[in-house]
Amino acid sequence: MTNFEISRTLSRVAKVLSFKGVERKRITDIKILSMTVEGLPFELNRKSLERVEKYLLNKSYLKKILRDLVVYGKSEEIEILLRDVPPSLLELTRIPGVGGRTLKILYERFGVVDIYGLESVLKDGLLSRVKEIGLNGEEIIKKNINKYFKLKREFSLSTAESLFRHIKGILINHGAKRVEIAGSVRRKKEIVSNLNIVCEVENPTRFKKNLKGDVSTIKFIAKGDHIEFLYGDCEIPIKLLVVPKDYFGSALLFFTGPRNFSNYLISKGKDYGYKTLPPGYLWIRGDEKEILNILGMRYIPPEVRERWKEYLDMNGLLSNLNIKGDLHVHTNYSDGISSIYEVVSFARDMGYKYIGISDHTKDLKVVNGLNEKRLMKERLEVRKLQSKFPEIKILFGAEVNIRQDGSLDIEESALRELDFVIASIHYGFYLDREINTKRMIKAIRNPYVSIIGHPTGRKIGERERMNMRYDLIFKEAERTGTIIEVNATNDRLDIDSNMAYDLRNREVLFSIGSDAHFAPQLHSLSNFGVFILRRALVSENKVINTFNLNHLLEVLGRKRRSFNKDND
Ligand SMILES: [Zn+2]
Ligand SMILES: [Zn+2]
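# zinc ion complex -> structure
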């Protein structure tokens, strides 16, 4: 199995387990493993498996499942589990108000297996009569059912990239010589709705015939150089452009887009006397860089092509090479899989200069959130561990919960002992706009809150961003010196590049956080987070992950100091 297939299988397993109401910890572990595999920068095989397995020493059931899927391509345990529940039923959890318990009622009492079944049950007003749902619950589902269709069409960059790697293997098996991703995925857009691929093929007729036999389950359209299909039950439309070898670079440049950039290149090409080939790209040989040079331009990285004019006026973008650390990391003290030791050694091996431990706190009981006492115990362990890691500084913080009234779930006396505090919202996403705005502003005004975590609360394909007055919230962050997080977890990517772009000229600093719950997930900071800020054209001196340790500590302590001064 490829990473894509493994991750998709595990994600389904997690949903089935939650439907069955098994112990929460097991579900979380599977979900974390699924997300980790999807976001890995390398494909898992017998050999590379070891790089993940060595962090699963204390999780024998996860280790076994992963090994079965990677080495044997199947797991009997999983097959039995998945047979029980129709996948279309599990999809309904995208609707706010439909959780595991409601799903069970829908399935067992009303025989609902998909969205159409749910619609008909709602039409008949049957749900309000169920004690556990009631009139109120039915209203919430009715109000939100339309979100299902919107969220269903949203795929995170991470999912799209892992699907691409999977599809690439298939295309090469069918004789494709060269396969590259284009379109919004290549531009690293956080949410994508299709996969554009450029493909060099020697014998297009044979290629199309073979491919059709392998991937077409629902839809396969081949028209000239274009092929469009769906893969398995995955709903991302895949669009292939078949091109001859000599014009691969030109086709890739054109189909990476965005449209206004491609149109600009075409008109520029015309000025230079170049013709356009029928699918739309310029009749120029060479790779992208050479073609841009021929048109009198310098190379523009795909992720900034939406803002290419501004990019050309800049002095450089944030680079992965300058990332020195990560402050948003969970361990097995709360709901993470890895121990503090494992996280720190992984970060050290990545070449980081510092790593911040930030576990969940007490309001989040379901994820084993820490109260003040356990937090101080973890702090002691972190401080002790430091002597074993002279190469990397371990900072100790927490991801505290912002309550509905904007207060935090940890006492000030404990917050004072932390090197930094990330404050995030973890429930009550659908409160009134004004209430949530006030709630967030109150948290920002807390002198101990250094960073606001996953500020909009969105989950790609699952939950829209919270309805708040972001203008006021970011203004308050700027005024108080509160850092805004760019959360790099596969399904969050929050804030996104558009929000970061709007903020780039304000006096606001950004912190990219992997929000890793398993050591190998630390990779997501560079894989996804850095690209959000590159797309936003945020300069490196606004990103605290690039600061050296002293500078970072100064910045993290600045807000507290200014509050103390005001109170003197
Ligand atoms: Zn969080
Ligand atoms: Zn977190």
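# post-check
Residues 399, 424, 426, 453-454 surround zinc ion (ligand 1) (CB under 6 Å).
The mean pLDDT is 93.
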